[in-house]
Amino acid sequence: MILFKETLKNSAYKFRVTYTTPQIRSEQKIDTAYPPHLHDSFIEIEYVYDGYMDQIINGKKYRLESGSVTILRPSDYHNCKVSSDAKLFTLHLMPQVISRELLYNILNCEKEIVYTFDKSEAKYVFDNCMQLHKEYTDKKEYFENICKNLFENIIYTTLRKLDEKPDSKYVPTPLEKAVLYLRTSFMNNPSLEETAKYVHLNASYFSRIFKNHTGYSFNSYLNKLKLDYAQKLLTETDMTVTDICFSAGFGSLSNFSRTFKSHFKISANKYKQKYGKSKMKFYDKNQINFQH
After folding, report:
1. Treating both helix axes as pointing N-terminal to C-terminal, what angle do 174-185 and 218-236 enclose, rounded to 10 degrees?
2. Which of 19, 27, 181, 269 has a CA that sits 20 to 30 A from residue 255's CA?
3. Rounded-to-integer distance, Cα 290 and Cα 292, Å
4. What pLDDT digit, counting tens, does each position of 52-65 carry?
5. Do the bridges between strand 87-93 and strand 15-20 make them parallel or antiparallel, or are there none, so unpaired?
6. What is the dihedral of CA 260, 265, 268, 270, to 10 degrees?
7. pLDDT tens sequence across 1-33
8. Mean pLDDT throughout 261-266?
9. Looking at residues 223-246, what average pLDDT do you find?
10. Residues 141-190: tens digit of each pLDDT
11. CA dihedral 207, 208, 211, 214 (to 10 degrees)
């Protein structure tokens, strides 16, 4: 398992728009297959204009054909293979690019966010992607604002098809913003001070109201997020316990083993043996036919 680091974190813009075709991939020597990986903070959107892409997301296999959109959150582990004739828009954005309300709906969607639009609806998404690419390439005045609106159009349109109904009146509180922040960055071990600063609160005051709001101390809640994620990887993937330890954000295997056993009353290795189900191995070319 590979952790894709925040390639956008220190860039001038908190998003990137890429359009690739067979010719572009050949000229720029862009890979058509990606091993299983996670994004440590950013969101990725893939729109397939032509050809297809095979994705395994959280252990489930999807074929994305012309008109398909997938929205990958930081905690979605996935790998993919692109067909030789594929034309794709790939959008990377940091969570702060979109509204808090929309981020809340993405993170609380209980299913993988994958949908294939019919021809008329696909044209609307394609037009948004084309305008995004033009705005990002030209970088004229106000392009960041326009790109934000286009990102949100694509995401809202996709969520609506999944029967998700975003609440346009929802305004998250500072504590809810903090929880959203932790859920997108727990693998990076944000400190209490960093999180308090993110929601514009004094650290000591934030610590007190965080526990009142969640029922957990800050560190206990952060550990819970990491343990829940490790539990998910132990049961749904073929990753080793060591890889799971570091992918979930633990700094050492000994600390992970001790914390996991204390919480679940069983070692991570025994948990994997007992509850790990039949898994589809990531990146196994014998299990997915990527040819036409």
Report:
1. 40
2. 181
3. 7
4. 999 988 778 899 99
5. antiparallel
6. 180
7. 455 555 666 567 789 999 999 999 888 888 888
8. 92
9. 86
10. 999 999 999 999 999 999 999 875 555 555 678 888 888 788 878 888 99
11. -90
pTM for the predicted model, two decimal places: 0.66
Asked if residue 3 lies in contact with residue 35, where contact means CB atoms within 8 angstroms, the answer is no
Residue with tokens 């030209």: 138
Q: What six digits make up the tokens of 136?
A: 């990002």
Contact (CB, 8 A) for 101 and 172: yes
